[in-house]
Amino acid sequence: MLSKEVQLEVNKGMMLPLMEEFYTIQGEGYHTGTAAYFIRIGGCDVGCHWCDVKESWNAELHPPTGIDLIVANASKYSKTIVITGGEPLMWDMTLLTQKLKDKNLNVHIETSGAYPLSGTWDWICLSPKKNKLPTDTIYDNAHELKVIIHNKHDFIFAEEQAEKVNPNAILFLQPEWSKNDEMTPLIVEYVMKKPKWRVSLQTHKYLNIP
Ligand SMILES: C[S@@+](CC[C@H](N)C(=O)[O-])C[C@H]1O[C@@H](n2cnc3c(N)ncnc32)[C@H](O)[C@@H]1O
Ligand SMILES: Nc1nc2[nH]cc(C(=O)O)c2c(=O)[nH]1
Ligand code: SF4
Ligand SMILES: [Mg+2]
């Protein structure tokens, strides 16, 4: 149980349950191959059965950390900061992103969009989930749509989501890692047939980096 004082700071977004931070290469989507500092915030109740960071789900396992400390640390490593989780939009991102922007950093988010959009973002990667669909506002604001393909039905879901997202969003299909061998050839075939889509691979897993 958090003390009342800490809980109040978390509610304001002055403290956040920090799981891990690491400087790496963005492995997925539009910015693949570029250096970025990742901040992984704990807490997610979307429940994707194939999620590759289930350790992030329980926010109580991750210590509430002051955002000034998070920002001071991040700014030492990179001009581009990726906020991920867990589901970062479960928390109020307003102050964290404001403080990162004050340092002239590029601020990106990886989100399912299942919670209301907060914060100021240079790049929003929306990865919608069937279990808990995105809110309306994030479809209008996403820069990329990255749909995970775990089975054939996910192509239908991807098309439904592409209908909802703003017309400037760049569209990606990414194989679910445990079904990589099965789904990647289907994605390749699909993208050649419907070239509005692009392939996204989890390249950090091939590179053996975080
Ligand atoms: C772990 S999630 C955290 C951010 C947010 N909760 C979300 O789902 O977008 C980061 C990215 O990894 C993707 N992802 C998670 N597990 C995956 C898996 N097994 N295979 C492929 N992509 C996966 C998600 O769809 C998302 O795009
Ligand atoms: N290298 C690397 N790139 C990523 N892109 C999105 C990630 C995430 O877990 O949000 C991720 C990650 O965990 N590592
Ligand atoms: S929404 Fe993201 S963090 Fe949450 S379970 Fe799904 S992939 Fe994992
Ligand atoms: Mg990851």
UniProtKB/TrEMBL annotation:
Residues forming coiled coils: none
Question: Does Disulfide bond appear among the keywords?
Answer: no
Q: Which residues bind S-adenosyl-L-methionine?
A: W50, C51, D52, G86, S127, P128, K129
The Radical SAM core domain extends over 31-210
Concerning InterPro entries, the annotation shows: 7-CO-7-deazaguanine_synth-like (IPR024924), Aldolase_TIM (IPR013785), rSAM (IPR007197), rSAM_sf (IPR058240)
Known EC number: 4.3.99.3
Q: Which reaction does it catalyse?
A: 6-carboxy-5,6,7,8-tetrahydropterin + H(+) = 7-carboxy-7-carbaguanine + NH4(+)
Which Gene Ontology MF annotations are present?
A: 4 iron, 4 sulfur cluster binding; carbon-nitrogen lyase activity; magnesium ion binding; S-adenosyl-L-methionine binding
The note on cofactor binding and number reads:
Binds 1 S-adenosyl-L-methionine per subunit. Binds 1 [4Fe-4S] cluster. The cluster is coordinated with 3 cysteines and an exchangeable S-adenosyl-L-methionine.
Q: Answer yes or no on keyword Magnesium.
A: yes
- What PROSITE patterns does the record point to? RADICAL_SAM (PS51918)
Q: Which UniProt keywords apply?
A: 4Fe-4S, Iron, Iron-sulfur, Lyase, Magnesium, Metal-binding, Queuosine biosynthesis, S-adenosyl-L-methionine
Binding, substrate? I25, Q26, G27, R40, T84, P210
Query: Which top EC class is named for this enzyme in its record?
Result: lyase
Q: Which GO terms describe its biological process?
A: tRNA queuosine(34) biosynthetic process
Binding annotation for [4Fe-4S] cluster = C44, C48, C51
- What cofactor does this protein call for? S-adenosyl-L-methionine; Mg(2+); [4Fe-4S] cluster
Q: In which pathway does it act?
A: Purine metabolism; 7-cyano-7-deazaguanine biosynthesis
Q: Which family does it belong to?
A: Belongs to the radical SAM superfamily. 7-carboxy-7-deazaguanine synthase family.
What does the protein in this record do?
A: Catalyzes the complex heterocyclic radical-mediated conversion of 6-carboxy-5,6,7,8-tetrahydropterin (CPH4) to 7-carboxy-7-deazaguanine (CDG), a step common to the biosynthetic pathways of all 7-deazapurine-containing compounds.
Checking HAMAP family in the record gives: QueE (MF_00917)
Q: How does it assemble?
A: Homodimer.
Matching PANTHER family, A to Z?
Answer: 7-CARBOXY-7-DEAZAGUANINE SYNTHASE
Q: Under which name does UniProt file this protein?
A: 7-carboxy-7-deazaguanine synthase
Biological source species: Flavobacterium weaverense
